[in-house]
Write a structure and sequence with these properties.
The structure holds two protein chains of two kinds.
Chain A: H1 3-15, H2 46-53, H3 56-71, H4 74-100, H5 108-122, H6 136-158, H7 164-183, E1 194-195, E2 201-202, E3 205-206, H8 210-231, H9 235-245, H10 247-252, H11 257-283, E4 285-286, H12 293-306, H13 312-331, H14 337-351, H15 355-366
Antiparallel strand pairs in A: 1-4, 2-3
Chain B: H1 2-28, H2 30-61, H3 68-86, H4 89-110, H5 119-141, E1 157-160, E2 164-167, H6 168-190, H7 192-202, H8 204-209, H9 214-239, H10 246-261, H11 266-286, H12 291-305
Helix pairs in contact in B: 1-2, 2-6, 2-9, 2-10, 2-11, 3-4, 3-5, 3-9, 3-10, 4-9, 6-7, 7-9, 10-11, 10-12, 11-12
Classes of the chains: A mainly alpha, B mainly alpha.
């Protein structure tokens, strides 16, 4: 980050009120040119600025993801498309936390899983004795709220530690939750979990249908993506990146480092929770297997695979992961998916720490095109 | 004076309820209480064996080896093969130690040596390795449950005063862990290499500057740490059983033990192992549904009062 950018960030952040309230409200989807709130300060010329920022590739990607379900088979729409979007959203929460906050948490799947469980507990499922049977528009917000509060608590606990300790503590929390869900029958229904959790029906559109569900997932994913894009340029996000790069300096500049970090956990928790609700609707059921260690790590694999330097990496990683998951059987010996994904992950970590996006950037720069990086270097 | 009073208050806060519970439990059902106590101690010794290697490696190299559980499982499987073929349990233990030590050595020499100081990347690599190892072992050994037969001289059960019958093997595990713990401590405290390792934990740069081949020390430490995991694999596999998924279980156990006890401290690992092992067994005996929650509560409390663990120091 250049000195001028720093100064601007400092000034704008300093004028904001308390550091925790510096977080702006989630903006509307700025995908369409009429959506407001792309810039931190909306100027009269924001429309032309927005137009200047939109490149051809943005429109191509948008058109591709919108048209995709109309050309793809239901299998590709649902199993590949919608699942990638839901998983990508959970991985996006890790990208935000890890890439911009410098806190690699393994508990993101746990938070997503908790949101899924809460939807099942508040809403309807096969277990009448556990589910409260609320309508979905009441169950979902409370599930998101519960998971976000849990995420903030996880954050509060783990920000006492740094770097490598964070991984360990979030890992321990996640596995503890897994065992709790597996052993507890009064709330989580133990090993069986809860099933028959269906996506709602709204305005005549059945979200249980592949195309309908795909668009729900796409809407959530786009909202999450642009929320992250927006946040990392807002005072809160810039302060967070400052904390990632040098917590001590930010502390002495008067920032409340812990509050920023916990707030980052809460934001990431909300993203993961939305992903978790999508996952539980996608699967129609939730069990401890959804939040076991392998699943927790798979979120990390997805985020690292795509690259943690840009929010799109999470979705790129998710698509690759889901494709490998579905087609590794054809590529390699049957049932050796973990070996393939573990090997791919290992290769990426060993040879291209910035993931597939890093490879792409390298390819571009070796072809003589200027390197685009949304995010500046980070010291290890 | 105030510090002292605070300390006493803390002790009362934590030791008080435990003491009350113990008195109640002894009066209520003494054999159950002491049997659980012994079981807890056995589990604690297993946890100590696994976690001591983990904490040793972390303390010196700042490498959170999340493939530690895989080393445990590998040691167990290799030990099982050797035990089946030779019929000697002691050889199986030695094979478990050696195989894991060699794998650990290879990991250090071929991978981690090239990414020194990149904590996060090392951890990600160990995650990748653990996925690959877990799948390779599942491939090679399948999902079956393997069990060892301990040698005749520690087979069967011993009659103890209050608990009456207790498996001899578990007592042997407890004694072995104490012996290994003392051995590890004296190795670190009394020998030259141990001195170098301790120096490296405190200040790697200074150790290298005073002419010690740090890479060699790293390799030796990693081999010992990995070997202890492999040894624990055979010992633990004999006490319980070996199956896929045990790697995760012991990885979590060593993580929690080390978080509670303090990273990099062998004494801390023994304290953490005692706390977690006892909590788990007492939880299972007295409140089966929530036994995991106890472990978790201990971790949260430890973190809240001592973020670096009970014996932890500033890194």
């Amino acid at each position: 980050m250049s000195a001028a950018q720093w100064r601007r960030a400092m000034n704008s952040a300093a004028t904001a009120a308390a550091p925790t309230t510096a977080r702006p409200a989630p903006s509307a989807r700025p995908a369409s040119p009429s959506a407001p709130g792309v810039d931190v300060i909306a100027t009269p010329t924001w429309l032309s600025r927005l137009a200047a920022r939109i490149r051809l590739r943005h429109l191509v990607v948008l058109a591709a993801v919108v048209l995709y379900p109309f050309v793809a088979s239901p299998f590709f729409t649902y199993q590949i498309g919608a699942q990638s979007l839901a998983l990508g959203l959970i991985a996006l929460s890790l990208t935000f936390l890890g890439g911009y906050g410098g806190m690699v948490s393994l508990a993101q799947m746990t938070i997503a899983g908790l949101a899924g469980y809460l939807v099942a507990i508040f809403g309807t499922s096969s277990m009448v004795s556990i589910s409260l049977g609320w309508p979905w528009w009441l169950a979902v917000p409370f599930a998101l709220l519960g998971a976000t509060v849990f995420a903030a608590a996880v954050g509060w606990l783990s920000v006492r530690t740094e770097g490598i300790y964070t991984i360990m503590i979030t890992l321990a929390i996640g596995v503890a939750f897994f065992y709790l869900a597996q052993q507890n029958y009064t709330v989580f229904n133990g090993f069986q979990g809860l099933s028959k959790i269906a996506a709602p029906e709204l305005a005549g559109i059945d979200f249980r249908e592949p195309v309908g569900f795909y668009f729900v997932a796409l809407g959530c994913a786009l909202a999450g993506y642009f929320l992250v894009k927006h946040l990392v340029r807002a005072p809160f996000g810039v302060a967070l990146q400052g904390i990632r790069d040098n917590p001590r300096r930010m502390e002495s500049l008067g920032y409340h480092v812990t509050a920023h970090r916990v707030a980052a956990y809460a934001v990431a928790g909300l993203l993961a929770a939305v992903g978790g609700v999508l996952m539980v609707w996608y699967n129609g059921r939730i069990s401890p297997g959804t939040v076991n260690l392998a699943q927790m790590i798979s979120i990390l694999v997805i985020a690292v695979l795509g690259g943690m330097k840009h929010p799109i990496g999470a979705f790129v990683g998710a698509v690759v992961y889901v494709l490998l998951q579905n087609f590794a059987i054809d590529l390699f010996v049957r049932e050796r998916f973990n070996l393939v994904i573990g090997g791919v992950f290992l290769a990426i970590v060993l040879f291209s720490p910035d993931g597939l996006l890093g490879l792409w950037a390298k390819l571009r720069s070796s072809l003589g095109r200027p390197e685009i990086s949304h995010q500046k270097r980070r010291p290890q | 004076m105030r510090e002292q009073r605070k300390k006493i208050a803390l002790w009362l806060l934590f030791a008080g309820p435990i003491a009350v519970f113990s008195v109640w439990a002894v009066v209520d059902n003494a054999p159950l209480y002491f049997k659980t106590l012994l079981n807890g101690l056995t589990l604690a010794s297993l946890y100590f064996l696994v976690a001591s290697g983990f904490t040793l490696v972390f303390g010196l190299m700042r490498n959170v080896n999340l493939a530690h559980g895989s080393l445990y499982l590998l040691g167990a499987y290799v030990g099982w093969i050797v035990g089946e073929n030779t019929g000697s349990w002691l050889l199986a233990v030695a094979a478990g130690f050696l195989s894991a030590a060699v794998l650990g050595l290879l990991m250090q020499v071929f991978i981690f040596r090239f990414m020194e100081g990149q904590d996060l990347r090392q951890t990600l690599v160990t995650i990748g390795l653990s996925i690959v190892f877990a799948d390779l072992m599942l491939w090679a050994f399948g999902g079956e449950i393997y069990t060892f037969d301990p040698p005749a001289w520690i087979y069967g059960s011993t009659v103890l005063p209050v608990v009456e019958k207790f498996p001899t093997y578990r007592i042997a595990v407890l004694l072995a862990a104490i012996v290994i713990g003392i051995g590890l401590w004296s190795f670190l405290a009394r020998t030259r290499i141990g001195m170098m390792i301790r120096a490296g934990v405190d200040d790697r740069g200074m150790l290298a500057a005073s002419g010690v081949n740090v890479q060699l020390i790293f390799a030796v430490t990693f081999a010992i740490g990995a070997g202890l995991a492999g040894l624990a694999g055979v010992v633990g596999g004999t006490a319980l059983s070996i199956s896929p998924g045990e790697d995760t279980r012991y990885l979590l156990a060593s993580l929690v033990v080390v978080i509670v006890g303090g990273m990099g401290s062998v004494v801390g690992a023994s304290i953490g192992a005692l706390l977690i092992g006892l909590a788990e067994q007492f939880g299972l005996a007295y409140a089966p549904t929530y036994s995991v929650v106890f472990t978790f509560v201990i971790m949260v409390v430890a973190l809240a009062f001592r973020p670096r663990g009970i014996m932890g120091r500033a890194a």
